[in-house]
């Protein structure tokens, strides 16, 4: 797939992987529609990039609202005429025991992570099929391939994104529209501070930033930079590659998880 001269729409574009994808797409000669719910940061980043001469616009968008996703599509088409790349990247996380997760928290996590991707596919996919050109990248997670305790809502959403992506890939075979599923492990982003954007009625405290070196020590892994992840994503888009796996440890965990499945063993935590 050619990138130069094309248009990308990226959700969760105000920071982390979304911002890195924005910058990488610009570097490839693309125009970018940046979308995020975090308005101040989104608009500040868009102004910075525009000041550097980049062809970008920003659209404040809650991806859990299908009407706002439709408005995002309309804004992109109005500004640039068409869209060739969609990155359904917006995501949130909330760690707590499953039995202590309130219904409203389930709604928020599933709404942003899973329904946000589904609504994006439904809004932009038909346009891409009609033009017989495009690519959709859905950001799942290693958490969509292997489970751990205390992240039930996140796992449920990300497993859903993986299933959605696999199904969509099969359906769009031969249409000229590709699908990729990004399953990162630890990346140097603010995902552990995601509750900063939660609805106020959920009652979350303001999250305390956790240094990435502490996360690396706790998780026993090495955080990848968002820029490197963005490079992997655009390689996959060009190559029409479905799976985007950032860390070898993910392959190891999935292998052990699948061994448990094949042997009909009960799930156990795989550190």
The gist of it:
With 271 residues, this protein is an alpha/beta fold. The chain has helices spanning 16-27, 39-51, 66-80, 103-131, 152-171, 212-219, 226-239, 248-262; strands at residues 7-11, 31-36, 56-60, 85-88, 134-139, 177-183, 243-245.
Structure commentary:
This protein is of the alpha/beta class and 271 residues long. The chain has a single domain (7-262), classed as NAD(P)-binding Rossmann-like Domain (Rossmann fold). It has eight helices and seven strands. It has helices spanning 16-27, 39-51, 66-80, 103-131, 152-171, 212-219, 226-239, 248-262; strands spanning 7-11, 31-36, 56-60, 85-88, 134-139, 177-183, 243-245. α1 crosses α7 (226-239), α3 (66-80) runs parallel beside α4 (103-131) and α4 packs parallel to α5 (152-171). The longest helix has 29 residues, at 103-131. The protein starts with 6 loop residues before the first strand and ends in a 9-residue tail after the last helix. The model has no long low-confidence stretch (mean pLDDT 96).
Question: What is the strand and helix layout of this fold?
Answer:
Layout: E1 7-11, H1 16-27, E2 31-36, H2 39-51, E3 56-60, H3 66-80, E4 85-88, H4 103-131, E5 134-139, H5 152-171, E6 177-183, H6 212-219, H7 226-239, E7 243-245, H8 248-262
Parallel strand pairs: 1-2, 1-4, 2-3, 4-5, 5-6, 6-7
């Amino acid at each position: 797939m050619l990138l130069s001269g094309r248009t990308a729409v990226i959700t969760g574009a105000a920071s982390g992987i979304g911002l890195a994808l924005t910058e990488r797409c610009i570097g490839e000669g693309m125009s970018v529609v940046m979308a995020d719910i975090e308005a101040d940061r989104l608009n500040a980043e868009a102004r910075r990039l525009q000041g550097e001469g980049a062809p970008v616009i920003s659209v404040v968008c809650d991806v859990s609202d299908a009407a706002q996703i439709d408005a995002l599509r309309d804004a992109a088409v109005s500004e640039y005429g068409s869209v060739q790349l969609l990155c359904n990247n917006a995501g949130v996380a909330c760690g707590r025991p499953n039995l202590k997760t309130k219904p409203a928290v389930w709604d928020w996590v599933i709404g942003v992570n899973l329904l946000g991707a589904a609504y994006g596919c439904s809004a932009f996919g038909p346009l891409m099929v009609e033009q017989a050109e495009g690519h959709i990248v859905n950001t799942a997670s290693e958490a969509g391939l292997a489970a751990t305790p205390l992240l039930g809502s996140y796992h449920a959403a990300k497993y859903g994104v993986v299933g959605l992506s696999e199904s969509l890939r099969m359906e769009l075979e031969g249409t000229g529209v590709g699908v990729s599923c990004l399953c990162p492990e630890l990346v140097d982003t603010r995902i552990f501070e995601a509750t900063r954007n939660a609805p106020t009625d959920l009652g979350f405290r303001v999250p305390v930033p956790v240094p990435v070196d502490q996360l690396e020590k706790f998780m026993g892994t090495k955080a990848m930079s968002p820029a490197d992840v963005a490079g992997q994503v655009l390689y996959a888009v060009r190559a029409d590659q479905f799976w985007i796996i950032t860390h070898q440890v993910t392959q190891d965990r999935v292998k052990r998880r699948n061994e448990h499945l094949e042997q009909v063993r009960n799930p156990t935590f795989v550190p």
